[in-house]
Design brief:
Rossmann fold, Dna Ligase, domain 1, 6-stranded antiparallel beta sheet, 5-stranded parallel beta sheet, 26% strand, globular
Length: 424
């Protein structure tokens, strides 16, 4: 089948790799893609968030399946426009995408359907935010309601910082429309965990679980980022905890969507916090695969991802064989110096050809573009170098062997991804 993948980041690089491996895919198109997808697909400069432009392109190319990678096209209703034209889509419509597009909507949904989450208050004025913050103790959690490209969640050490951030969002337009409403919630200690469920609106299956590293520097220090690395599977999860997550979060979420009349076809990302006692709370929903979690989940998944995506789009997921995860995977993000703050781009990247010759190592592209016959940096997170192996230790060693082969000016990466996690 002819397949169109929307997006151009590290997540989409990994999805393109998984789709290209499938015997079902005869032709792969990416819009816009990046330097890494060029060897797997035809890249096209169309706007993935413009429903009409995407529909016209998919119709012109006679596409059999569209896979939507990022959240913005989903919130923009691209999946609805494609389905209206009879084109199968892996990704929810605008109604389902509100779970990610509005944090206030998501928290109210969790409350309505009895899904465990941190106590919260939705605020539209600084006065309301101050009242909510005074009811809490440090560290303070302030979240912009709308999409903010991974920059809308703030963990703040003092009340003064928290109220200043709330004022910047609500009154000073720091994130534009995304910050016109904020969510103030209790801080939850523990370990974060990502569960990805794929659904066709009737049933669901779980992809391998993963855990990512958000902070910029070793030892989980520094500012939050979109993710500096990840690993999969997660060895500290047992079958009992996984069953509890399914029973208390995944199943009631999908049942709630159905009850609310929302036909959800695609990925339900559940960002969880597990405390020392094993109690869990849902931090957030995403309605697509995570980044950099996708880069480690798909190499660990032994199934045919194109078959999964098509089955979700057409309501036939129950008929798909579902193998267990195979090898462990560790992904290390190589970022531009200064990320997540200011950084420079346009630096030549060397070592990619040498890395491609390695076994059990893949470099997924994120912020890259071609220049002449080479590849240069074009974003904050540049590459995710993923190593695989029978244990997390071997996967980690393979990943860092790959990282050491890559070079670009001012490259920054953490040296402790998946360190001290244990076996797999």
């Amino acid at each position: 089948m002819k397949t169109l993948l929307l997006g151009g980041g590290g997540r989409e690089s990994a999805i393109a790799w998984a789709l290209a491996k499938s015997p079902m895919v005869s032709e792969l198109h990416c819009a816009p893609g990046n330097a890494g997808t060029l060897s797997l697909a035809h890249n096209h400069e169309i706007d993935p968030c413009d429903p009409q432009e995407v529909v016209e392109f998919a119709s012109r190319q006679q596409v059999d399946l569209v896979v939507i990678g990022p959240e913005a096209p989903l919130v923009a209703g691209v999946a609805d426009a494609l389905r209206a034209k009879g084109i199968p889509v892996f990704g929810p419509g605008r109604a389902g995408a509100k779970l990610e597009g509005s944090k206030a909507f998501a928290k109210e949904f969790m409350k309505s359907h009895g899904i465990p989450t941190a106590p919260f208050r939705v605020c539209t004025t600084v006065r309301e935010a101050e009242e909510a913050l005074r009811m809490r103790t440090a560290p303070f959690v302030v979240k912009a309601d709308g999409l903010a490209a991974g920059k809308g969640a703030f963990l703040l050490d003092t009340f003064e910082e928290a109220i200043s951030t709330a004022r910047d969002l609500l009154e000073n337009g720091m994130l534009g429309e995304a910050g016109e409403t904020v969510v103030i919630e209790d801080f939850l200690p523990g370990r974060e965990l990502t569960i990805l469920a794929v659904s066709d609106g009737k049933t669901f299956r779980l992809l391998p679980e993963s855990q990512d590293h958000k902070r910029a520097f070793d030892g989980d220090l520094g500012p939050n980022t979109g993710g500096m690395g990840a690993f999969s599977p997660v060895p500290w999860i047992d079958s009992q905890l996984k069953e509890t997550i399914v029973r208390t979060v995944v199943e009631p979420t999908l049942a709630g969507l159905k009850k609310d009349g929302i036909d959800f076809r695609g990925v339900l990302y559940c960002g969880l916090m597990i405390d020392r006692s094993g109690s869990l709370n849902l931090l957030e929903y995403n309605v697509r695969m995570g980044d950099p979690e996708t880069q480690v989940v798909l190499p660990s998944f032994r199934g045919d991802f194109a078959h999964v995506a098509l089955a979700c789009a057409t309501g036939e997921l129950a008929s798909v064989a579902w193998p267990s995860a195979s090898d462990c995977s560790v992904g290390v993000v190589m970022a531009s110096g200064g990320y997540p703050g200011k950084y420079e781009t346009g630096f030549a990247i060397s070592g990619l050809d040498d890395l491609a010759a390695l076994e059990n190592v893949i470099a997924f592209h994120a912020g890259t573009r071609t220049k002449g016959t080479g590849v240069v940096t074009s974003g904050g997170r540049v590459l995710t170098v993923v190593g695989s192996g029978p244990t997390l230790g071997e996967a980690r060693e393979n990943a860092y062997n790959g990282v050491r082969m890559i070079d670009f000016s001012k490259a920054h990466y953490r040296k402790d991804i998946a360190s001290g996690i244990g076996g797999c």
